[in-house]
Amino acid sequence: MVFKSEIKNINLVERLIDDISAKYEIHSDVYGKLLLAVVEGVNNAIVHGNKLESDKDVVVEYEISDKEIQFVISDNGPGFDYKSLPDPTTPENIEKTHGRGIFLMKHLADDVEFNDKGNEVKIVFNLT
Q1: Fewest CB within 10 A of the end CB: N or C in the chain?
Q2: Torsion of CA 116, 117, 118, 119, to 10 degrees
């Protein structure tokens, strides 16, 4: 799935996840985590990666097997240093209204990996 970097296009991703969940009978526990983590990843690609520039694309790919489902989300942005993110649970960050997306993704998914550049993320959920 390829779409322009506009917040309204998150609806397309939500619909995709709903369709996948129905087709493959994804358990409701996994569905909730999957929906939140993937939407957060797409939101990050639109807002932080592509800086809401609607001429830039976000690409969402998925692969499913009996054991897992994985989503790969990429943007046209310059990337970022995913290794040096502030911890949103520390006292100096706890009241900030941003900076929790990747933390949330890592806690919801079974695995989260970034490419070296930081403009692509793979989010994996175990189905067993």
Answers
A1: C
A2: -130
